[in-house]
DNA sequence: GTCTATACTTCGATAGAC
DNA sequence: GTCTATCGAAGTATAGAC
């Protein structure tokens, strides 16, 4: 595992080591010395690759943003939704899992969750891309489902909240409350998302 | 407002100033010097009142814990619930507001939310007292409501989840995402809790 | 691109006079 | 109980030799 003596460029090693340490201890609690030690170089050498410590975090965030920018629901998936409401759990859960499962992403989710409270760039990204945009997308989907009389005529905005906020809660629970404690989060999350979707579906389906 | 020249004991001043600064910037970002400056004494004098910086945080947490220890649902409230399900929003929301509204509590909620990820004592408290115990209480309530055929026979545990986790999400949203941004959170929270409770109620009520 | 060496800053905490 | 004075540790970052 500690096979970092490979020919991986130093800049990439710094990125990966920082990603690992930041996700475990938080940005402030990690020193440049510690990163350097783990990479196997002196701390001054870090500055040959990144302007300063903050720049490493920025690089990590930028990587994550570009990864997730392409993460919105594809059109075909949305079309499937409008055939039968029973599918919406599958589609929602797939979107959820997709956002989490990339190997580096899980660590970045943890960093995001930790730094949320004092990093403006991260907080803005979270609010708009991770909350508002998906929420608006789900609202549109439910609006169409109501128009097609597939579900009861509830307020689509409220329904979007009711459906979507649970995923936000799960992320909070996992990355803040249970990190490094819960081994197979994905299985548990899947089961709970499934229960949740079923509950919502029962609430709005037309008998 | 800056009327701290009153005869308030120094130890209390240190407590209040720390509470204020920790809630704004997080524990690590506040220095003992800063606290001392704000109180109006030298930093060495701090140590006449608290063993070290950590001890100030401990005092704050202990204060909060004892405040909330008496915060569980009183019996009369629970009895009211079992008369008519329409009341359960009122009861739940009252319990929620009660936990938040004490003047010092709001700042402590912020500190709790920030330090959750690297303070074991805080995390354990959050998990047991703030999550598991209320969840279990709601599960019992719903179980009784089902026995009395007041609501549909859904899984009471899942229903408790569905009902209660919205409050947890609201706290996360307010204290992490919107702190110092949203002025009248209580009004918005009340409205959204109301929407949520209505949604849940519609989902499980017997037609 | 990495090294040694070092400058500079800030931090938590203590000793001892008053 | 507050002050002055100070310590040691740890942090970020830079200069210059190799």
What would the keywords be for this entry?
2 domains; 72% helix; 10 helices; 207 residues; DNA-binding; Tetracycline Repressor, domain 2; mainly alpha
Which regions of chain A have little confidence, pLDDT < 50, spanning 5+ residues? none
Radius of gyration of chain A (Å): 20 Å
Annotated CATH topology of the largest domain in chain A: Tetracycline Repressor, domain 2
Number of strands of chain A: 0
Average pLDDT metric of chain A: 90
Please trace the helix and strand order of chain A, writing H or E for each element.
HHHHHHHHHH
SSE blueprint and pairings:
The structure is a homodimer of 207-residue chains.
Chain A: H1 10-25, H2 32-39, H3 43-46, H4 53-69, H5 75-81, H6 88-101, H7 103-115, H8 120-147, H9 156-177, H10 185-204
The first copy, chain A, binds a DNA duplex (18 and 18 nucleotides) through helix 3.
Outline the structure in words:
The structure is a homodimer of 207-residue chains. Chain A has 207 residues and is mainly α. Chain A folds into two domains: 1-59, Homeodomain-like (Arc Repressor Mutant, subunit A); 71-204, Tetracycline Repressor, domain 2. Chain A has ten helices and no strands. The termini of chain A are far apart. Chains A and B meet through helix 8, helix 9 and helix 10 of A and helix 8, helix 9 and helix 10 of B. The structure holds a DNA duplex (18 and 18 nucleotides).
């Amino acid at each position: 595992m500690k096979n970092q003596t490979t020919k991986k460029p130093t800049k990439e090693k710094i990125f990966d080591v920082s990603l690992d340490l930041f996700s475990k201890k938080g940005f402030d609690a990690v020193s440049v010395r510690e990163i350097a030690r783990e990479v196997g170089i002196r701390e001054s050498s870090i500055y040959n690759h990144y302007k300063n410590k903050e720049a490493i975090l920025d690089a990590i965030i930028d990587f994550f943003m570009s990864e997730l920018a392409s993460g919105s629901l594809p059109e075909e998936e949305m079309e499937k939704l409008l055939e039968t409401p029973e599918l919406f759990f599958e589609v929602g859960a797939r979107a959820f899992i997709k956002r989490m499962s990339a190997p580096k992403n899980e660590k970045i989710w943890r960093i995001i969750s930790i730094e949320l409270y004092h990093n403006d760039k991260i907080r803005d990204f979270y609010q708009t891309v991770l909350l508002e945009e998906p929420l608006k997308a789900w609202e549109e989907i439910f609006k169409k489902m109501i128009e097609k009389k597939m579900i009861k005529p509830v307020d689509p905005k409220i329904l979007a909240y009711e459906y979507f906020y649970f995923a936000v809660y799960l992320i909070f629970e996992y990355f803040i409350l249970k990190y490094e404690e819960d081994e197979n989060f994905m299985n548990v999350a899947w089961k709970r998302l499934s229960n949740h979707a079923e509950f919502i579906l029962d609430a709005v389906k037309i008998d």
